[in-house]
Structure formats: C-alpha cells, structure tokens
Amino acid sequence: MHTTSMKAIILSITLAVATCRPSDLAHLEGGHEHEHEHEHEHEHEHEHIGVLRQEISAVEGNNFNAIFEAENGISQAVQGNASPNGGQEMTGSFKFPLPDGTIVEMQYTAGEQGVVIQDISGHLPVAVAPIHPIPAHAQEQIDFSNAQRAAGLAWDDQAQAWI
Predict the structure, then answer these.
(1) What is the mean pLDDT of each run of 10 residues along the chain (163 residues)?
(2) Where does the secretion signal sit in this chain (predicted)?
(3) 135 and 148 in contact (C-beta within 8 Å)?
(4) Measured between alpha carbons, how far is 17 from 9 in angstroms, rounded to an integer?
(5) Which residue of 41, 84, 135, 137 is 20 to 30 Å from 105, comparing CA positions?
(6) H or E stretch including 126?
C-alpha cells in the first residue's frame, strides 16, 4: 500500500476514535423526545469533550506530524520520517486517563524492525523472570553469538557460517 494512503488511513482512524462518542440527537429531531426517554434511563449523561489542540502537517514524502489533545486528558502525537533504508519510521506517544484518575502514557517507535512500545506509566504487563537459570552451555552460545555480532559479523544461512 502506498505510504501516503497508509498515513491517511492511520490518521483517519485515530481521529475517528478520538472524536467518536454517542450522541443524543432527540433535541434536533423535534417532537420525538418521549420516544427516546426510556432508552436513556440507564445511560450516564454524556458530556461534550472539546478539542484543545489539533495540528496536522502536510505529508511530504515520508515526513508528517500530527498532534491531538482533548479536554478530558486524551492526547496523541505522531511523527513520520524516512528511515535510513528508504522505508518509513513513525515515533509517537499517547496518553489517556483511566476512570480512577490515573494516567496511562505510552511512547512508541514503528519501523522496519517492528513496533517498540515504552510504557512510561507502568500499566502494561511485564514478562515473568525465568524460573530456571540458563544452562552454562546455552549461555556460552549466546555470548559467542553476541561477540560475533559485536565484531560486525552476521550469520549467513546459505554459507552456514559467520561472515
């Protein structure tokens, strides 16, 4: 998919999610208020959430910026750039409040190597530490591989050797 189309889709979805909310349009329909009263007996009142900031730059190649911030504490910022290998890399962050008032904040980088998320607020689960220690012979192989990579070598599957 063309990167400009992909950016437009991502931005459209983000904005749609951020601005969507149930709406009570009975006051605009005229005369139908009584039909909708029963439907809303168990709903919580919905308040309007204003947009404090929304900035979207023009897309130039792989470069773009988008920032969104709402009155209720939801915010998002994303920046797209060309990666060194000609692909695209996106970095960004988002923040939102939980019902108990705590704030969830994440930062991410998405690119050719996948997505890396940093949980600034500590809300994502953390992997459990291994129960069993790594056997000595396995650790030797791991250390050897790391040393080869540190020396600038890479494993070649066809040659079955470090080159």
Answers:
(1) 64 65 51 48 68 90 91 93 86 92 91 86 81 89 93 91 90
(2) 1-20
(3) no
(4) 12
(5) 84
(6) none
